[in-house]
């Protein structure tokens, strides 16, 4: 079974680049969340990709939508993302991290 890895860091600090270097299937939590969580609540965007590209202008709204999606189960987004990826890139809150850290074999 493949190892499950969490890559964390500040916004735009090279997390995706680090994940690419691992050579494993990875998913940016922001891209995943744009498609599955945020875009359905932001009709001004024509696609999940457009929503993702403008994420820096709506950080609070993204955080709130993802928090609601993960309530009451703080592991929901992580579990769903890990079904299709070995590496989860980016995490938004300490609460989410504490609830999900046992799902990972390695945390960077």
Describe this structure in words.
The chain is α/β, with parallel strands linked by helices and 108 residues long. It is 45% helix and 10% strand. The chain is built from six helices and four strands; from the N terminus they run βαβααααβαβ. It has helices at 15-22, 29-38, 48-53, 59-69, 76-82, 94-100; strands spanning 5-7, 26-28, 87-89, 106-107. The protein has a four-stranded parallel β-sheet with strand order 2-3-1-4, with helices on both faces. The two termini are 19 Å apart. The model has no long low-confidence stretch (mean pLDDT 92).
What's a quick, concise take on this entry?
The chain is of the alpha/beta class and 108 residues long.
List the main descriptive attributes of the protein structure presented here:
6 helices; 4-stranded parallel β-sheet; alpha/beta; 108 residues; single chain; 45% helix; globular
Q: Tally the helices: what do you get?
A: 6
Helical residues, percent: 40-55%
| CA distance, first residue to last residue | 19 Å
Rg over alpha carbons: 13 Å
So what's the overall shape? globular
Sequence stretches where pLDDT stays below 50 over 5 or more residues: none
Spell the H/E element sequence: EHEHHHHEHE
Alpha-beta classification: alpha/beta
Number of E strands: 4
**Strand arrangement, largest sheet?**
2-3-1-4
Major sheet details: 4 strands, parallel
**Average residue-wise pLDDT:** 92
Oligomer: single chain
Percent of sequence in beta strands: 5-15%
């Amino acid at each position: 079974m493949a190892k499950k890895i969490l890559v964390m860091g500040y916004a735009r600090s090279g997390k995706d680049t680090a994940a690419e270097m691992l050579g494993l299937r990875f998913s940016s939590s922001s891209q995943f969340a744009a498609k599955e969580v945020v875009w359905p609540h932001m009709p001004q965007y024509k696609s999940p990709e457009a929503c993702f590209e403008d994420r820096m202008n709506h950080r609070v709204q993204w955080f709130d939508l993802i928090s609601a999606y993960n309530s009451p189960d703080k592991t929901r987004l992580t579990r769903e993302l890990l079904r299709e990826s070995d590496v989860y890139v980016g995490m938004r809150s300490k609460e989410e991290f504490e609830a999900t850290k046992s799902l990972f074999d390695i945390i960077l």
